[in-house]
Amino acid sequence: MQVRRHFKQVLSLDDHLRMFSEQLKAKAAKLQPGRERDVLLRRASAADTASHINEWANSSGLQAPK
């Protein structure tokens, strides 16, 4: 039987997504316009969206459906 290794997360999901997005944007800024740059910017945008959704889902104003 395998034993699962547990560890405590140092960064929150929101922090991790924001850092990931910033890293991708920094890499994209160094590239010439093209496919690789577009892919990095699309991934950064997806990380930003995920961060906003996570923030919204964890907000105190979120109401349960009736």
3D architecture notes:
The chain has 66 residues and is mainly α. The chain has a domain at 18-55. 61% of the residues lie in helices and 0% in strands. The protein contains two helices and no strands. 8% of the residues are buried.
Q: What is the multimeric organization of the chains shown?
A: single chain
Strand content: under 5%
Query: What is the radius of gyration?
Result: 17 Å
- What is the CA-CA span between the terminal residues? 44 Å
Q: Report the count of strand segments.
A: 0
Q: Provide a count of the helices.
A: 2
Structural class: mainly alpha
Q: Strand count, sense and closure of the main sheet?
A: none
Order of SSEs, N→C?
Answer: HH
Helicity level: 55-70%
**Global geometry:** flat
- Average pLDDT works out at 89
Q: Ranges with pLDDT <50 over ≥5 residues?
A: none
Concise overview:
The protein is mainly alpha-helical and 66 residues long.
How do the helices and strands line up, and which of them pair or pack?
Blueprint: H1 13-29, H2 35-57
Helix pairs in contact: 1-2
Key traits:
2 helices; 61% helix; mainly alpha
